[in-house]
Amino acid sequence: MNSTLVHTFIKHEIFTGNPRYILFIHMVLNDMIQLTVTVVLHVLSYIVFTINVPFCCVLIMIAIFTTLNTPLNLATMAIERYIAICNPLRHTQICTVRKTYVLIGLLWALSVIQVLPDLFILLATQPLSFFYTTVSCYRDNLFNNPYVIEKRNIMYIIYLSFVWVTIAYTYLKILFVAKAVNSHARKAQSTIILHGIQLLMCMLTFVGPFLDRLLQNIFPMFILEMRFVSYLIIQIIPRFISPIVYGVRDQTFCNYFKRYLLCTMFKARNKINTQKIGKRFQ
Question: From 1's CA, which of 11, 46, 245, 281 has a CA 20 to 30 Å away?
Fold first, then answer.
């Protein structure tokens, strides 16, 4: 589904020139990368148990980047809707395609800046021989310096507080407009609510380590099973519903999406019929 959404976005200029859909498809691509990397990490933990430290470091860093991008992207989407509804006359001036791509680059820069110090501390505190060993590839196993853990907790609080304040502010502003204006503003109001729900589900990622430890203490005989349940709830489900909530729910995107699926099915059916006719003549 995500790949089809990306293909639909690329093929139609109505989406590539709209900041709203650019931010949406960036979230889809980000979640695709995040899910791919975390699935690889999860499968490797079952198959080989430990992997080479540099390879583990690369996978962990990518997973962290993309995980942090999701709440920041949700906040940016909420701001774009706020400008479109509460300041529509300046929307085309403020929310341009160029500025949107610059903002996406800034989101990645913020995520990278948050994690790079952890890598530098790891390189400074661990001997060279450590990077030739294998480890169980979890963030707490790799970046286990107390300073790194404390910094991570503080940064999570700052990030999430900023995102929550942004979504709450935009929601309240749009709420007031929705009472006095049209159904378009009311639809934007419901969209902001969905941003908040999605953010709440994404926040489960930040309590993942605590949840893992809690489940392991409650069910010590089913560690692998509990780890799988935790991964399913924290990583898979929130990003599984994103394309449904933001893509299929959008009427314009949904119409082009259905059109693409129908064309694909029609071409596939014609191809099968052509092959059947060819076999009859043979």
Answer: 46
